[in-house]
Amino acid sequence: MAINYKAIAKKLKFEGRAFINGKYVNAIDEKKFETINPATGEKLCMVAKCNHKDVDFAVKVSRKAFNSGVWSRSSPEHRKEVLLKFADLLRKHGDENSVLECVDTGKLIADCINEVANDAPMHFQWYGELIDKVFGKVGPTEPSITSLIVKEPIGVIAGIVPWNFPLMMAVWKMAPALAAGCSVIIKPAEDTPLTAIRVAQIGKEAGIPDGVLNVLPGYGDVGEALGRHKDVDAVSFTGSTEVGGYFLKYSSESNLKPVALEMGGKSPFIVLEDAKINDDLIDNAINSAFWNGGQNCSANMRQIVHKKVKDEFLDKVIKKVKKLKVGDPLDLKSNMGSMISKNHLQTVDGYIQKGIDEGAKLLSGGVSNNKQKGFYAKPTLFDGLKENMTIAQEEIFGPVLGVLTVKNDEEALKVASNSKYGLHASVFTQDINRAFHLAKSLPCGTVSVNTFSEGDIKTPFGGYKQSGSLSRDQGTEALNSFLQTKTIWISHS
Q1: What is the pLDDT of residues 87-138, one digit of tens each?
Q2: Domain ranges for the chain
Q3: The sheet that has 361-364: what strands, in order across it?
Q4: How many of the other CB atoms lie within 10 Å of CB of 46?
Q5: Which amino acids are annotated catalytic?
Q6: What is the CATH number of domain 268-457?
Q7: Strand pairing category for 183-187 and 213-215
Q8: What is the rounded CA–CA span in Å between residue 48 and residue 17?
Q9: Virtual torsion, Cα 437, 439, 444, 447, nearest 10 deg
Q10: Which residues contact 460 (CB under 8 A, 6 or more apart)?
Q11: How far, rounded to the nearest angstrom, does the alpha carbon of residue 358 sit from its chain's CA centroid?
């Protein structure tokens, strides 16, 4: 039986308060802000506008919970049990939470189901099952010495998450940090706070002790207060490169807390002349640029295509782009939902106009007409991009696919590497040697060969250059980023 997502949306009850110390509370100053449905432009609810006072309170209760040992020193088996229950409850509420994410973000319900109902629970399950398999080491010493190398939770963690994948990015922080035994404070983006707020209560139902998981909605001042707080032990940030740089500054000006950064991208999609220009490749090309309306740091907007296959490639791409249906994200027939806000739509339109002004050839789409409710951009296709064009260098974060033409592999590598970012790349070729050469040469954190994929929970995700720090989300690497290494040196007869 088909699920009526629109009916679920009509029955949603919105919770906009902060979640601190195991309960929903208003901001200390009682201030609120409005969150809207970007697909309609209509108000959803009022949300607590937290500030530094709320940060101080949340950090205080987080520290108290951590120091008490109620979670931080509980057995790995106990934390595993709770996280597995957390996963089960998220699956139970999967449809409702997916619709909540859909109306808060304007992204397709199918994507929300995949992320919120499927991937989010899987993360809690995976890290829950991993935590009782973390072992220390015994160092080689002389007989009168025993050296123990052990792992301990870092302490109080602040997770700063973006608006494009609001719950998934929160879970990328929550799940490994909670598994490690840390106390966690999540600061959701002001545009999309609702699923993180809701999931915090589900965590309590699963058995997360009071004070261990907190959610503070608000604006940038909340993130800054967390970044500067001397009793926050580490920050994990996902968002723009510009804002990520601020957190390094906050750390240097406070307690030198470690800062994990996953930031912007301008990812290349390389098609060599021996690639099969079939439906699979074309679908990957379109999905890589237009998935989530291009509001994705890994979006392959820079499509670098060998001149021998470019005409065939473009002919097939343009036919499918023109068939994309932009509309109601709750409608399963829609191929693309809305942009996150009116301001962001204007930014995307500005980039499209810039591309036209700088001489790129517009093949499809263009600037939005702004005649419908909500903030909908047009899937836009450009040919004739040059390396130095604005739309070939800057992160657009919208549904724009631009094609650059190259003559050989080394030119493709040069063009692909000409970016301040280094998050993701896709390479299409039938020659395994050429694939490995490019994969090993491209300065980025993830390279997909003959597909567009960021990997999965088992593989680390992050970037080179201005796309990220040495830390990684997902995989065992994420868990390790929330663990300290301690050496215990014992002298005995």
Answers
A1: 999 999 999 999 999 999 999 999 999 999 999 999 999 999 999 999 999 9
A2: 5-263+468-488, 268-457
A3: 361-364, 380-383, 400-406, 302-306, 268-271, 424-428, 446-449
A4: 14
A5: 262, 297
A6: 3.40.309.10
A7: parallel
A8: 5
A9: 170
A10: 445, 472, 473, 474, 475, 476, 477, 478
A11: 31
Half-sphere exposure for 418 (CA within 13 Å, toward CB): 16
- Region of 279 (left: φ > 0; alpha: ψ -120 to 50; beta: rest) is alpha
Q: Could you tell me whether strands 259-262 and 400-406 are parallel, antiparallel, or unpaired per DSSP bridges? A: unpaired
Buried b / exposed e across 226-244, counting CB within 10 Å, b at 16+? bbbbeebbbbbbbbebebb
Distance CA 49, CA 412 (A): 47
CA pair distance 24, 156, nearest whole angstrom: 20
361-405 per-position pLDDT tens digit: 999 999 998 777 899 999 999 999 999 999 999 999 999 999 999
Tokens of 426: 């896709």
Sign of torsion over alpha carbons 136, 139, 142, 147: negative
Calpha distance 179→159 (Å, rounded):
15
Tell me how far apart the alpha carbons of residues 445 and 422 are, in angstroms, rounded to a whole number. Answer: 6
Predicted pLDDT of residue 493: 78
Partnered with residue 36 across adjacent β-strands are: 43
Q: Which DSSP helix (H) or strand (E) runs through 112?
A: helix 109-112
The gap from C-alpha 285 to its chain's centroid, in whole angstroms, comes to 20
* 303 phi and psi angles, rounded to 5 deg: -105, 110
Q: Is 181 left (phi over 0), alpha (psi -120 to 50) or beta?
A: left
Contacting residues for 133 by C-beta, under 8 A, at least 6 apart: none
> According to CATH, what is the number of the domain 5-263+468-488?
3.40.605.10
- Rounded to whole angstroms, the Cα distance separating 123 from 197 reads 18
Query: How far is residue 266's CA from residue 35's CA, in Å, rounded to a whole number?
Result: 29
Cβ neighbours of residue 15 under 8 Å, at least 6 residues apart? 24, 45, 194, 197, 198, 201
Neighbour tally for 15: CB within 10 Å: 18
**% pLDDT > 70, the chain:** 100
Pair of tokens at residue 405: 């033409």
Q: How far is CA 43 from CA 8, 10, 38, 339, in A?
A: 17, 13, 9, 16
Amino acid residing at 115? E
Hey, what's the torsion of the CAs at 391, 327, 167, 348, to 10 degrees? 20
CA distance 472 to 263: 11
- Residue 309 to residue 392: CA distance in whole angstroms: 20
Secondary structure element (H or E) that encloses residue 242, with its range: helix 241-252
